[in-house]
Design brief:
Elements: H1 2-35, E1 48-52, E2 55-59, H2 76-86, H3 89-95, E3 118-120, E4 131-135, H4 161-167, H5 170-186, E5 191-193, H6 216-231, E6 236-242, E7 255-257, H7 260-278, E8 282-285, E9 289-290, E10 293-294, H8 299-309, E11 315-317, H9 326-332, H10 342-353, H11 359-375, H12 390-404, E12 406-410, E13 421-425, H13 450-456, E14 460-461, H14 463-475, H15 485-489, H16 502-510, E15 514-520, H17 531-535, H18 539-554, E16 558-564, E17 580-583, H19 591-599, E18 613-614, H20 635-643, E19 660-662, H21 671-676, E20 681-683, E21 694-696, E22 700-704, E23 707-716, E24 725-732, E25 743-749, E26 758-766, E27 772-774, E28 779-781, E29 786-794, E30 797-805
Parallel strand pairs: 4-5, 5-6, 6-8, 7-9, 7-19, 8-11, 13-14, 13-15, 15-16, 16-17
Antiparallel strand pairs: 1-2, 3-4, 9-10, 12-17, 18-20, 21-23, 22-23, 23-26, 24-25, 24-29, 27-28, 29-30
Bound molecules: beta-D-glucopyranose.
Length: 806
């Protein structure tokens, strides 16, 4: 008996020992490969000062004299060339990859920023500091709390990019960028990993909320405005994901098979506008391949197109762990590998040793990285104090969110007048969604729900409606726990919906003046959405819409629907039921206040759709080539992929829409397709209602110096002050080539026009914007002949047409 017990204990002991050994060595391996492998490269401190001609300088290499690179009176190029000439080859190679993931999981070195997802490593011998990078794009994503500190480090959750694009207001978006830049500056972050400018190719890409639009011009102009706003603070941006990263399914290996024309006219065009209008400090290459080559290894994309054709001056970094071959990445023009691994470091050293990478190539990439470092606040020794103006930024968020919400329908409901008691229905009314999940998520201090927003605006919230929600929450308490930390990354919070009984509804209707039903959706990085129960309303949601509207209408009361969503959902089958529909998107941390501002008429809605809301998902041609059974990545899957990088399936076993995706629709994305095929849509691109009406004056169009100058007067002919988005579309008459029937070529937004107030808006379109990508010559070509220049309140509400002859 004794022996048996001893043997048993021995086995347990061995088991525990082995588990600890395997666990310990796995952690050691992960730590030394992916998290923290930078021994000997600590943040430089104890840098001496020099006083020269009464001015203080840092003697970064402590050699007792002022080197050109230490002298901030010298031109940037001189400083960079000087430091480059002082660096050893080892130091240069070291700079080409980040410091690993340690700080992103809170394991920081002294002076580090917990939660910062990446870094440019320091060069201690020359006193060059660490530069911190943080997501993006809806605000910063650093850790809100730190061990041993009472102070919190919450960041502002700004509205999602799709909402910002719906504002069509570049001036306002610049201000949002400016606020983000200021916040980054005060938290010690030098580069924001955003904006994200991929095209909404298909409504169900899980990250569409991070992207602006189905149209490249709108995406590009919005992206440039935000880059300019952020960078006006001396903070850099990383415009991502370059390029054609339009699905999350198998994103690390997916190969986009696409024509040159679609690539240039649709997928590259938005990035081109951003580069030319704002010179972002950095671009982030995407995970996917394009026509067989990883974008991060594509010299064509990163050198020929980005730098030679567009004049991009900054550096290119990989998406996190993206691509396969570090040497090929550097050669192609992808200067920085993020977040950096020990494997990549070793591979680069080896590639230099065996001649695969030349010193010249290393110098090019190093120069670009150094140029960025020298532009940063960190290099200027800026003393950030971790106290950004979160109150002011909350106000900017609130206003910008209200500016981008789109009023889809309004049958004498809004703005609210004689309403006192509002019944809030649907869980999302109480659990408002600020933004999507994944790296685009923000650690904000709070999110204002619709309930709170309406209470702040002075309304009473119907008690029975609220009680029903409370009870439901109690019954599903586990599902209402919001995932946090790592768990939140690939786990969008989607609590179960309420099922109202007829009796409950009748009582709620009897005790309230108006019903608001909120439909919520949440998605994010690492997974695409699906048609059933996501694009389409669930069975329960469909029942809710019908039963709630019927119950309120029976008592002559109205129902408003609020869509708190990050991507397109189906609207055609149910939109005739409620009296009003507000597409609130995911409006950041002040979302509930922003909606309330619109409902009470403090803000007159002026947002317009940056994409089409189709009748059926299958109306998009891209639906023929888009993953139908999306799976979400898990943290375990991610770690497994890191340790054992997935290999491509053999050619014969490749799965369509996973291993490769054919962009057979070519340039016919979004409204370009719906208009060409004259398809009915639920709400067209550029659509959005206001509480007032605008009259469009006669459009004047003049062609001068290769620019089309358009002017027209917009008059507010209603009672309510409001702003109007004016859209300019071009249409080539009698075209000899296959081209869209119309394309957005310019837009503007009026200032707030009082009743009877008017403004003459001016829009300029360089004629080269009317070019098409000529596949025969592999260049842009301008077709001669007559073009219709159309001014519209939406893509399907054209208010004036003029012609130009080119
Ligand atoms: C995302 C990027 C993000 C990076 C760092 C990646 O998984 O695709 O958009 O910037 O992680 O968080």
């Amino acid at each position: 008996m004794m022996m048996k017990k001893f043997l048993f204990l021995k086995i347990i002991g061995v088991f525990i020992f082995l588990t600890l050994l395997i666990g310990g060595s796995s952690f050691w391996y992960i730590n030394k490969t992916f998290l923290s492998f930078e021994d000997g490269y600590d943040e430089p401190n104890n840098i001496d000062q020099l006083t020269i001609e009464g001015q203080l300088f840092l003697d970064r290499n402590n050699n007792g004299k002022l080197d050109p690179y230490e002298d901030n009176r010298q031109p940037l190029r001189t400083r960079v060339n000087d430091v480059l000439s002082q660096m050893t080859l080892e130091e240069k190679i070291h700079l080409l990859k980040g410091a690993g993931m340690a700080s992103s999981v809170g394991m920081t070195k002294p002076g580090g920023i917990p939660g910062a997802v990446g870094a440019i490593v320091p060069t201690p011998r020359l006193g060059i500091p660490t530069i911190y990078l943080s997501d993006g794009p809806a605000g910063l994503r650093i850790k809100p709390t730190r061990k041993g500190e009472d102070k919190t480090f919450y960041c502002t959750a700004f509205p999602i990019a799709t909402l910002l694009a719906s504002s069509w207001n570049e001036v306002m978006i610049f201000e949002v960028g400016n606020a983000m830049g200021k916040e980054a500056k005060e938290y010690g972050i030098d580069v924001i990993l955003g904006p994200a400018a991929n095209i909404h190719r298909h409504p169900l890409c899980g990250r569409n909320f991070e992207y602006f639009s189905e149209d490249p011009l709108l995406s590009g102009y919005m992206g440039a405005a935000i880059v300019n706003g952020i960078q006006s603070n001396g903070i850099g941006t990383s415009v991502k994901h370059f390029v054609a990263n339009n699905q999350e399914t198998n994103r690390l290996l997916n190969d986009v098979i696409i024509s040159d024309r679609a690539m240039h006219e649709i997928y590259l065009k938005g990035f081109e506008h951003i580069v030319k209008r704002s010179q972002p400090w950095t671009i982030m290459s995407s995970y996917n391949k394009v026509n067989g080559i990883y974008t991060s290894e594509s010299e064509w994309l990163l050198t020929d197109v980005l730098r030679n054709d567009w004049g991009f001056k900054g550096l290119v970094m990989t998406d996190w762990f993206g691509g396969k071959n570090p040497a090929a990445q550097i050669s192609a023009g992808n200067d920085l590998l993020e977040p950096g691994t020990n494997r990549q470091w070793k591979a680069l050293i080896k590639a230099v040793e065996n001649g695969e990478l030349s010193v010249d190539e290393i110098d090019k990439a190093t120069t670009r990285i150094l140029t960025l470092i020298f532009k940063t606040k960190k290099m200027q020794d800026y003393k950030y104090d971790n106290t950004p103006d979160l109150i002011k930024n909350a106000e900017i968020t609130r206003n910008s969110a209200a500016e981008g919400m789109v009023l889809l329908k309004n049958e004498n409901v809004l703005p609210l007048t004689t309403i006192d008691n509002i019944a809030l229905l649907g869980v999302t009314s109480y659990e408002f969604i600020a933004g999507g999940s994944g790296s685009g998520d923000v650690n904000e201090a709070y999110t204002v729900s619709l309930q709170e927003g309406l209470i702040n605006a002075g309304y009473k919230i119907n008690k029975l409606g609220k009680e029903t929600f409370n009870l439901h929450k109690l019954e599903h308490i586990e599902s209402f726990k919001k995932p946090e930390g790592l768990e939140a990354i690939f786990n969008p919070f989607i609590p179960p919906e309420i099922k109202y009984t007829t009796e409950q509804l009748n009582k709620i209707v009897a005790t309230s003046d108006l019903g608001i039903l909120t439909i919520g959706r949440n998605s994010g990085e690492g997974g695409d959405r699906k048609e059933k129960d996501d694009f389409l309303l669930t069975k329960n949601e469909q029942d809710m819409v019908r039963e709630i509207t019927e119950a309120f209408h029976r008592e002559n009361k109205k129902v408003l629907m609020v869509l708190n969503i990050g991507g397109v959902i189906e609207t055609a089958s149910w939109k005739n039921q409620p009296d009003a529909i507000l597409l609130a998107w995911q409006g950041g941390q002040e979302g509930g206040n922003s909606v309330a501002d619109i409902l009470i008429g403090k803000v007159n809605p002026s947002g317009k759709l940056p994409m089409t809301l189709p009748v059926n998902l299958s109306d998009h041609i891209s639906n023929d080539n888009f993953p139908k059974n999306p799976k979400m990545i898990t943290i375990e899957g991610l770690v497994k992929n890191l340790i054992f990088p997935p290999n491509e399936r053999p050619e014969a076993k490749k799965i369509r829409d996973e291993d490769y995706t054919h962009y057979d629709e070519g340039i016919y994305v979004g409204y370009r397709h719906f208009d060409k095929k004259k398809l009915e849509v639920s709400y067209p691109f550029g659509y959005g209602l206001s509480y007032t009406n605008f009259e469009y004056g006669v459009m004047e169009v003049e062609l001068k110096n290769d620019t089309i100058n358009i002017s027209l007067a917009i008059k507010n002919i209603g009672a309510f002050p409001g702003k109007e988005v004016v859209q300019i579309y071009s249409e080539k008459l009698n075209s000899k080539i296959d081209r869209p029937s119309q394309e957005l070529k310019g837009f503007t937004k009026t200032r707030l026009l009082q009743s009877e107030g008017s403004e003459v808006v001016l829009i300029q379109i360089p004629i080269e914007e009317l070019s098409f990508w000529n596949k025969k010559t592999s260049r842009w070509s301008l077709e001669k002949g007559i073009y219709n220049i159309k001014a519209g309140a939406s893509s399907r509400d054209i208010r004036g047409i003029a012609q130009v002859k080119l």
